[in-house]
């Protein structure tokens, strides 16, 4: 098997596997968690919801605090939790700030040195990782996959969905960085990973990408009105919502949840809704 199993944890009738493998895309070891629901088998394959985590996180944060598996288990839905960046490197400036470098890949393929050789998370998530997962776990259904994420991971979920029509059945996001070319987090990351060309940045901005989307979006977004990052204009979901509306894109629900913050209390509160949203489009409801 391509993966090393570092832990197997029984939970909600299924199993959470803590896995690692050597990635040919990033050139590093990569960690991930995989929840396999009860009853999944090669003859009864489980569809998969991918969850992309936010800045500073590892696959363990949401596995332990999000409780998504509690909602996924009775539906027969598998969950895949990738890491937020390559690990084990010591690139110049990689570990100096919490919002750039380690655990802050923004789920793109970097083009600027020294990041270009290793920070290739878009290719890793859309090609290498799913290929390995479905090859090694025949109880998972490669034809039924949805994607979701929180904050930076919400940005990743929206952009990967919009860049790859047909790859995912639905998309959802908690407090996504929705217009990164217009916020400090995105400007910092894109300058570092991509350089100064703002036209190039737009290729990784959900608000820009949705302008060219065809058909229903199958999307759900939750944002807490008590989220300090929302108040600081780091998230800008209203820009994404307006761009989708102006482009005539339907099938998007954006909900502003009164008083909720950016934390796992927020994620876990609305986790059932996001799991059910994916399950609907994956044919489980």
Provide tags for this entry.
about 280 residues, alpha/beta, nine-stranded mixed sheet
Task: Explain the overall architecture.
This protein has a nine-stranded mixed sheet, with helices on both faces. With 285 residues, the chain is an alpha/beta fold. 32% of the residues lie in helices and 22% in strands. Strand 1 (4-11) and strand 2 form a beta hairpin. The radius of gyration is 18 Å and the shape is globular. It has helices at 59-65, 68-72, 121-136, 152-163, 184-194, 198-201, 206-209, 228-231, 237-246, 264-269, 271-281; strands spanning 4-11, 14-22, 29-36, 46-52, 78-82, 140-150, 171-174, 219-224, 252-257. It has eleven helices and nine strands.
Q: How many strands in all?
A: 9
What general outline do the C-alpha atoms trace? globular
Strand content range: 15-25%
Low-confidence stretches: none
The oligomeric state is single chain
Report, as a whole number of angstroms, the end-to-end distance. Answer: 33 Å
If you average the pLDDT, what whole number results? 98
Instruction: Please bin the fraction of helical residues.
Output: 25-40%
Rounded radius of gyration (Å): 18 Å
